[in-house]
Specification:
This protein is 51% helix and 21% strand. It is α+β, with helices and mostly antiparallel strands. It folds into two domains: 245 residues, no CATH class; 82 residues, PDZ domain (Pdz3 Domain, Roll), CATH 2.30.42.10. It has a four-stranded antiparallel beta sheet with strand order 6-5-7-8, covered by helices on one side. Strand 7 and strand 8 form a beta hairpin. Helix 5 crosses helix 7. The radius of gyration is 27 Å and the shape is elongated. It is a multi-pass membrane protein. One of its GO terms (cellular component) is membrane. Pfam families: Peptidase_M50. Keywords: Hydrolase, Membrane, Metal-binding, Metalloprotease, Protease, Transmembrane, Transmembrane helix, Zinc.
Length: 341
């Protein structure tokens, strides 16, 4: 139960703090004045001031925020180090840094996971990689490392041959010949239903393990990020075009965090990497109020050489609020449906 509570807090805190940390570091790097860097939200529990920046701890431990002087468009700050008074290139770097840091976090987690755990491939050999607990295969003595020779009297050359044979059988009772440490034996197996309703023997395939060096881990981490980003673009297009899209809100993410945490810390880190990549991608969408929308507005200001009229900003922000509210309601609807299943 404690893990179910702490896991979502840990997940949200990491991805939001990394995001805000990107804004913070780039603001400092470009010479802007950062008035506060807060860990958490809500009432302040305490803080330490170092130079001009207050580093505070808030009561709600879900992420954090920056308070950069002149960041609020309504703040007519005359300080030359205020956000609104800095060059356009500096503002663009600060705005983009949050999402860039989220992508970098995902990249380093994926690369680290490949370096630590390596990866597995499916050689399609008729070798048992594992036996499902409680199945007839386990009771009849099939073990990890055994080679499947025949199923229902038909020769097996590859692992995929097993599924091709079993789906054509009219009976659930099937003779299986295996080779165990060089000794052949024929066993009578009672097949059970798999997840897709198809009959299964109750064994899983052998997967070949590969160790990974540092350079290959970085390459594979980058490839994984690119693959997931392409999947996110596809999902966004599906959602816009009215096709079914699997979108989770905060409740859904919290539930998944608790479930993933039960499978181990590495799985939780990989889940954080996926969410961090999602946050980085979504924040760069050209939607007002998101970092991507602010980037576009800042670019327009840089090209035109003047600020947008307040009335135009009002309508742009109203559109942004409408879009974000719609996305939030859609995600919450999916969360509620998930709770009812």
């Amino acid at each position: 139960m404690l893990v179910n509570i702490l896991a979502p807090i840990f997940v949200f805190a990491v991805i939001v703090l990394i995001h805000e940390g990107g804004h913070f570091l780039m603001a400092k790097f470009t010479g802007m004045k950062v008035e506060e860097f807060a860990v958490g939200f809500g009432p302040k529990l305490g803080g330490i001031k170092r130079g001009e920046t207050l580093y505070s701890l808030r009561s709600i431990p879900l992420g954090g925020f920056n308070r950069i002087a002149g960041m609020d468009s309504s703040d007519k700050n005359d300080d030359p180090r205020a956000f609104v008074n800095r060059p356009v290139w500096a503002r663009l770097l600060v705005i983009a840094a949050g999402s860039v840091f989220n992508v970098l976090l995902a990249f380093f987690i994926f690369a680290g996971a490949f370096l630590y755990a390596g990866y597995q491939t499916f050689p399609d050999l008729p070798v048992v990689g594992g036996v499902l607990s409680g199945t007839s295969a386990e009771k009849q003595g099939i073990e990890k490392g055994d080679t499947i020779l025949t199923v229902a009297g038909r020769k097996v050359d590859t692992w995929t041959d097993i599924g091709k044979i079993t789906k054509t059988l009219d009976t659930r009772i099937v003779p299986v010949t295996v080779s165990h440490e060089g000794e052949e034996k024929t066993l009578t197996i009672m097949m059970t239903d798999g997840d897709n309703g198809r009959p299964i023997i109750g064994i899983s395939p052998y997967l070949e393990h590969h160790d990974v060096g540092l350079g290959e881990a970085f390459l594979m981490g980058g490839e994984r990020c690119l693959f997931l980003l392409k999947m996110m673009v596809t999902g966004l297009v599906d959602m816009i075009s009215g096709h079914e899209a699997d979108v989770a809100g905060p409740i859904g993410v919290a539930r998944m965090s608790a479930q993933v945490a039960d499978t181990g810390f590495l799985s939780l880190l990989l889940f954080i990497a996926l969410l961090s990549l999602n946050l980085g991608f979504l924040n760069l969408l050209p939607i007002p109020l998101l970092d991507g929308g602010v980037l576009i507005l800042t670019l327009i200001e840089g090209v035109s050489g003047r600020e947008l009229p307040e009335k135009a900003l009002y309508y742009i922000q109203a559109v942004g609020v409408t879009i974000l509210l719609g996305l939030f309601l859609f995600a919450m609807s999916n969360d509620i449906q998930g709770l009812m299943k």
